[in-house]
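Something for you to look into today, if you have time. Could you write out one complete protein record for me, on any chain you like? Leave the record below and I will have a look.
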Amino acid sequence: MSDRFKVKGMVLQATPIGENDRRLVLLTQELGLVSAFCRGAQRQKSSMSAGSRPFTSGTFEMFSGRSSYTVVGMEVINYFDSLSRDPEAAAYGMFFMEFSAYYGREGIDGTDQLNLNYLTLTALEKKVLPFRLIASVFILKTMVISGEYSELPMIGTGKKAEAAWRYVVAAPLRRLYSFSLEDGACLELEAAVHALMEHFVDRQFKSLTVLEEMLSF
């Protein structure tokens, strides 16, 4: 067995494996995006049951096997458990995790994206902005961090939406959710961000389909 080590990260996805285990997709500061098994995590009395679910942020102790990582311990900073009590917020959060995983890569520094994820889930919990605006900001900033975005909107927008776009592109993460936008400009920003996604992103997101179906009712 390899020596154990610790990484700072967040659980983006969790998939049941058999009756007792889970396979986690983790975004980590030190390793970027990795998959790891969490043995016994589905057992109710497991010390890692609650922490092996999406949104969990903290320090994960693991070791590297021949072909995969295994999580053997965790120190949780935040479960973001209140999101599970708000179906709409949870649906947005699951999309953010899936979108983050799409752009994640193993072997890269995941610090900026990890911090963005944490700040975004906090914004969802505190409802600091309308969820649709939080989504636009998160998508655009993720694409900025990944080096894949347009410096200006790819479709026409009004001055307020364009100013918001420029702000999101340039703003430090700690200031990202500190502005407001009236409804009309918010819709323009959302349309511009979705146009950007259609241009660069080559897949459909299951979580986004679920979210769109929820919002249509």
Remarks:
- The chain has two domains: 5-79, 82-216.
